Task: structure prediction
Amino acid sequence: MTLKISSRGQIDPFIVMDVMRDANALDATGANIVHLEVGQPGTPAPERVREAAAAAALSERLGYTDAMGIVPLRERIARHYRDFYDVEVDPAGVVVTTGSSGSFLLSFLAAFDEGDRVALAAPGYPAYRNILSALGVEPVVVETRLEDRFQPTPELLGQVEGRIDGLIVASPSNPTGTMIDRAGMDELTQYCRKNGIRLISDEIYHGITYGHESVTALSFDPNALIINSFSKYFSMTGWRLGWMIVPPDMLRSIECLAQNLFISPPSLSQVAAMAAFDSLDELRENVVRYAKNREILLAELPKAGFDRLAPADGAFYIYADVGELTNDSAEFCRRMLTEAQVAATPGLDFDPYRGNAYVRFSFAGSEDDIIRGVQRLKDWRINTS
Ligand SMILES: Cc1ncc(COP(=O)(O)O)c(C=O)c1O
Result:
């Protein structure tokens, strides 16, 4: 007799994780892959964070904490909103989570019921779509356009058939790095308010921008649900720590969900993360390195035949239109990996409709990686064209 497996658990893979697994397997056989696939800083956590973690590991009990996170960290995050955005946040509305990934689960469960419809951009971060599907919430994919910097607009949302209960935006976006400016965020929040749409704003790449302002949706709508993380700007992916700014009507529900699903976010990471906000010099240096990597890729990728690139306003990605080179981005990336020894992510991860014509390159690694990577791509394209 076959045992039951749920159908809601049958979601799409997070393809970049599959690519990373294959690239790591090649590395294990002695290959020397250049990793332009994965979106994580090549740097460790800031030095002060590591020192604080070492001290806490030796001296503190590190038991469960409040489900919403330790109070000093919630207060420190609230202060960050004053310092960084000039926005007042009540620490009681700050919820510390297990990465922003934990925030997605909590916020989607708290905001939406089965059968609700949530709009999100394609190209966009695949986990939004896949987590919503697992929860029985319908992802409504809005195909965005280069002329709108691949971001949803009131005009595109107005073209959606049927009702929309929620909207997820990310600025800077993954995979395009494109951003929503102040005027755009104002229009979007007004549209959501007028149409009763719950806005969830993923602000995980704030701080990693190249001449563009990181605009929080909170400046325009106190009812927006804000998601952020220590993973990217703070260079702490493996510490699994993120946060949300939650409107008062959802706080108790999120607290109960967090208690039951996670008990608490990781306590060692919480204690150490306080020092992340005192490490701004080190973090700024990381952004300088990303900016340099970005310049190298923007100058050199066209020489390898990748000349249709989304404007990377922020984050650490370049989304390349490779429609003239392939109609199967997964196969194209497989060949790039085995023939050029360069790992990149097929656009299909981010866009179920047009993704076969796109590839995402990450420039979060070292400058040396970027230089070696583009040189290999240039040699590969010369040899294969
Ligand atoms: C847009 C976006 N949001 C959220 C995440 C998840 O980050 P974490 O769970 O490490 O906070 C990622 C990771 O790549 C991302 O690109």
Summary: The domain at 15-45+280-384 is CATH 3.40.640.10 (Aspartate Aminotransferase; domain 2). The chain has a mean pLDDT of 95.
